[in-house]
Amino acid sequence: GQQVMQIPQYQHVQEGEDFTTYCNSSTTLSNIQWYKQRPGGHPVFLIQLVKSGEVKKQKRLTFQFGEAKKNSSLHITATQTTDVGTYFCAENTGGFKTIFGAGTRLFVKA
Amino acid sequence: NAGVTQTPKFRVLKTGQSMTLLCAQDMNHEYMYWYRQDPGMGLRLIHYSVGEGTTAKGEVPDGYNVSRLKKQNFLLGLESAAPSQTSVYFCASSYGGDTQYFGPGTRLTVL
Question: Which terminus in chain B has less CB density within 10 A, N or C?
Answer without folding.
Answer: N
